[in-house]
Amino acid sequence: MPAPDTGFPASPQILKAGLVLLDPVTGTQRRIIVLQYNPDQLHRSLQVQATSGEGGERSEALRLKGPPVETIKLEAEIDATDQLEDPDSHAIAVQNGIHPQLAALELMVYPTSGQLLNNLALSIAGAVEIVPMQAPLTVFVWSRSRIVPVRVTEFSITEEAFDTELNPIRAKVSLGMRVLSVNDLGYEHRGSALYLAHLAAKQVLAAQSADGALGAFGLEKLP
Fold first, then answer.
1. What is the DSSP string of 63-102?
2. Is residue 146 within 8 Å of 193, Cβ to Cβ?
3. Do 76 and 39 form a contact (C-beta atoms < 8 A)?
């Protein structure tokens, strides 16, 4: 028998952060990586892209060359302890611990074995130029309001606990990412559309912020 309707809404869904890997040419999804636990902190820094430094032209003092260079750092936790308590339903965790989750994250910064072997074949064949291997377009998702293309710049793993087969069962992953703007990708790239949508969403959010008043500074007007 279904529970009676009490009139109270259901508990809100807790959204997860994560990464989406897209084909850099077609934009199709290759993999979705959902972080097991949302990080407690998200460190962001913005490096302003001004047209001139000290001693530059006065007429250029307020001009920008483009969007700021934004970097993001976070620490994510991965833990298979709960899964190991129910081995019948989590055979992969029992066999490999959190190796699969770590591998999925690590492969963001690896070329594929196929790409390496292809470059080897080109080298043996005497190719004059070997084009650097292209990685997937990585998209960082942190809520519906923050979806940005990124390049992973820092990656470190601290494995903290192991099972009897020395498979890691608990780890912390530190990620450093640089947001890729239209200056990095060009306006025709799929990632630029994501960046421009993110910038537009930021402008909408800023418009919702209440405007201040000079009285808050103890002023009636600027000098």
1. -BSSS-EEEEEEEEEEE-HHHHTSTTT-HHHHHHTTHHHH
2. no
3. yes
Compute the distance between CA of residue 69 and CA of residue 49 in angstroms, rounded to an integer.
7
Higher pLDDT, 57 or 155: 155
- Token pair, residue 56, equals 């530059």
Place of tokens 């993110």: 198
In which band, very low, low, confident or very high, does the pLDDT at 142 lie, cut at 50, 70 and 90? very high
pLDDT score for 19: 97
Amino acid at site 158 = T
Q: Between the CA of residue 15 and those of 12, 24, 145, what are the distances in Å?
A: 9, 26, 12
Task: Give me the pLDDT at residue 154, please.
Answer: 96
The answer to whether the beta carbons of residues 136 and 21 sit under 8 Å apart is yes
Per DSSP, the three-state class of 147 is strand
Confidence (pLDDT) at 6: 53
Structure tokens at 30: 């290759």
Tokens describing residue 34: 């959902």
